[in-house]
């Protein structure tokens, strides 16, 4: 189980996770930044739990997903929708009720944004991890667990920073928009190649 090749695969998976978890963490941080501390924890835990399920499901069919033309394009469009929702939220002032709590529905909205964004952004991560893990299933599962944990920890830190420094939210939005455009362009290119 712990052969040299499997340990090398695990090292590759950890490096991939560290590299790719940042984009997802920015999305989660942006989605939960206006929630109070207790709701923020709930949103992060729920979103990360959903991310774990999504990534596990994607990992099971990862190799077959490579053959689906247009999947990256569709993921980019989904992520573009998330960017639009975040942009609208960043443009309006913080919405709170009379007690100073976030507006009703904010928690549900944040969780939905986290799940949609993770669904659209996880494909690259899962495929990279599945490719690096090779035939070592325990490496694949460990890699997916590490990526989800990294995303949760980084998202909490990013959300705190966004509370203090609003301009970081705009930078984060640009990062997520860049990922969406990359997925749309790359996925669109695949579709065009297949059509022609």
Automatic annotation (TrEMBL):
Gene Ontology, cellular component aspect: membrane
Entries under Pfam families matching the protein: TerC
Topology in the lipid bilayer: Multi-pass membrane protein
Subcellular location: Membrane
Predominant subcellular localization, coarse grouping: membrane
Transmembrane segments: 6-30, 137-161, 167-185
Keywords: Membrane, Transmembrane, Transmembrane helix
The keyword Ligase appears for this protein: no
Family indicated by similarity: Belongs to the TerC family.
Protein's name according to its UniProt entry: Membrane protein
Native source species: Acetobacter oeni
């Amino acid at each position: 189980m712990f052969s040299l090749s499997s340990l090398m695969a695990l090292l590759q998976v950890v490096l991939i996770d560290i590299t790719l978890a940042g984009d997802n963490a920015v999305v989660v941080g942006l989605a939960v930044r206006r929630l109070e501390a207790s709701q923020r924890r709930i949103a992060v835990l729920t979103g990360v739990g959903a991310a774990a399920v999504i990534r596990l499901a994607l990992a099971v069919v990862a190799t077959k997903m490579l053959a689906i033309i247009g999947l990256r394009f569709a993921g980019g469009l989904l992520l573009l929708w998330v960017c639009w929702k975040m942009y609208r939220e960043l443009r309006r002032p913080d919405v709170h009720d009379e007690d100073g709590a976030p507006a009703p529905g904010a928690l549900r909205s944040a969780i939905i944004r986290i799940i949609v964004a993770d669904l659209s952004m996880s494909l690259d991560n899962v495929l990279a991890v599945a490719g690096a893990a090779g035939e070592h299933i325990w490496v694949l599962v460990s890699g997916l667990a590490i990526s989800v944990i990294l995303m949760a920890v980084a998202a909490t830190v990013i959300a705190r920073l966004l509370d203090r420094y609003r301009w970081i939210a705009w930078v984060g939005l640009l990062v997520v928009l860049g990922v969406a455009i990359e997925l749309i362009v790359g996925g669109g290119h695949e579709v065009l190649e297949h059509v022609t």
